[in-house]
Amino acid sequence: MLSFLPTPIGNLDDLSFRALEKLREAEIFFCEDTRVTKKLLFLLQSRFDVRFCESARFIAMHSHNERMLVESLNSALLAKRCVYVSDAGMPCVSDPGAALVAFCVEHSVDYEVLPGANAAITAFAASGIESAGFLFHGFLPHKSLERKGVLTKLLQSETAVIIYESPRRITGFARLLRELEPDRRLFAVKELTKLYEKRFFGTAEQFAVTLDQLNLKGEWTIVIDRRQRAKRDQNEWLIEELLKLDAPVKPLSKILSRLTDERASLWYERLKPPQ
User: Fold this and answer.
1) Which helix (H) or strand (E) holds 164?
2) Looking at the structure, do residues 124 and 97 belong to the same domain, yes or no?
3) C-alpha angle 16/21/22, rounded to 5°?
4) In terms of CB atoms within 10 Å, which of 64, 143, 185, 224 comes out highest?
5) Distance CA 165, CA 139 (A)
6) Residue 59 CB burial class (10 angstroms; 0-12, 13-18, ≥19)
7) CB 20 within 8 A of CB 52
8) Same domain, 150 and 208
9) 189 and 239: one domain?
């Protein structure tokens, strides 16, 4: 039997009794990083006074070798008590594991997936953002042009969007979101469930400013509010007529702002005569 186990994303007490028992019984550990898994077992042993199999075998299975390892895998190995654990959170969710699940399905290997800690679900519940569902994307691309294109597309979603970001790229993300939609509301949290968990509620503009005052260390989870159906869609004919008027730019910008939920300053920049 192969068990896919979610591991704590910060607080050790979030590990379920069922997952702890699977770890205790395991003979084979498939790990995203064997060092991280061994450290987790050491901490669990100290915290809960449990003992793990001394002869257990640890096999590294990460994003760079997962497919190659699965192709050479002997299904007889999985007849033993096996677990797969990623470094933190739920396997297969922005983490390796999916290729191993596919192997089990293809070769009729018995497997199970235990429920447990997940940063995306936890952040969505903590965000207070009302949305019938959400679009989970995970990490954005690293290259700037591709990154901008993907984020632009995600911002068109009619549901909330959940993104993961590293401490090295969180500032760049905030600046890009401010550039694209400064008024878009979001919830951001770093070090989720840990001692120094930090939360932010507000607009993209406010988030970019706030980051300059924060310690950026730690992984971030961002929940971006869904795209609001603009009043412009409902009153398109009225907007078109207003744009035809030879009216002072400042008061016209305020009226258009009320109709479209866009800032008056943005309308002013669009409508002001060229210098």
Assistant:
1) strand 160-165
2) no
3) 100
4) 224
5) 6
6) middle
7) no
8) yes
9) no
For residue 168, what is the domain's CATH number? Answer: 3.30.950.10
Q: How many CB atoms lie within 10 A of CB 4?
A: 24
Same domain membership, residue 220 and residue 251: no
CA distance 12 to 15: 6
The residue with tokens 């004919």 is 237
pTM score, two decimals? 0.79
CA 119, 122, 124, 126 dihedral sign is negative
Give the residue from 93, 113, 133 where a domain finishes: 113
Q: What is the mean pLDDT of the chain?
A: 92
Is residue 78 domain-shared with residue 159, that is, in the same domain? no
pLDDT tens-digit map of 222-274? 999 998 754 445 577 788 888 888 889 899 999 888 887 788 888 888 888 87
Burial label for 74, CB within 10 Å (0-12, 13-18, 19+), is exposed
3 state DSSP class of 151: helix
Nearest to 119 by CA among 8, 3, 5, 4: 8
Map tokens 């005569």 to a residue. 273
Pair (24, 45) in one structural domain: yes
Shared domain for 73 and 171, answered yes or no, is: no
- The domain in which residue 253 lies consists of 231-271
* Domain end among 69, 97, 113: 113
